[in-house]
User: What shape does this take?
Amino acid sequence: VPQPENHTWSCSCTARGRYKDHLGGSATGLAAKVGEMLTSSVSSSPLTLVGHAARHPSSPNRGSAPGSSSLNLSRDLLQRSLVLFAVGTFLALVLNLLQIQRNVTLFPEEVISTIFSSAWWVPPCCGTAAAVIGLLYPCIDSHLGEPHKFKREWASVMRCIAVFVGINHASAKLDFANNIQLSLTLAALSLGLWWTFDRSRSGLGLGITIAFVATLITQFLVYNGVYQYTSPDFLYIRSWLPCIFFSGGVTVGNIGRQLAM
Assistant: This one.
């Protein structure tokens, strides 16, 4: 009796071992075939070719891309600077003539003989300031990581220019009981211009900075007798002048942003 039991146990173990060997060999062969197929498909895929090309770029592209990009950037900055300079010069000429006609700004008699000889240095200085401000606004936006996207179209920019000219015209034509009331009115109009066409923290901060610096420069020029204002109520100038500088900075900044886009 013990002999058949031992024989049966050994036979079952042998058969089981053979079955396991057969399954193991089949699984190993199947895994090897799948691995070969995956290797061949990955090596011939477009992503692998693109990755190979990215790791081993050709020498002409590697040498010409940085130079062309810097050249395009310099050309873009030059074009924007020229456009901003032309716009600033034109606006300064028109608004300065408006102030002279309303007898708000007085120049010596010898420099008002013709239109273009009266304070010839004002339009170029304003054009240079417009170029600097127009390039500074998009630069500050990119540095702060807050791209300006509020009303980004040329129609909005043209309306902003019209409102700025209207504010400057109001400063020369509106008659109030005193300059303080006029200054408060123009301050409200200037903040309304910023809220309508800008609404950015960078635009508000730069506008206030521009108004402060330009007012100091104007005080210095008037103090040295370059020109003068009629009825000054803020040291040597009119109290509403910072409002004009603020709205002008916001307007030129919107032009510079639109050109940058």
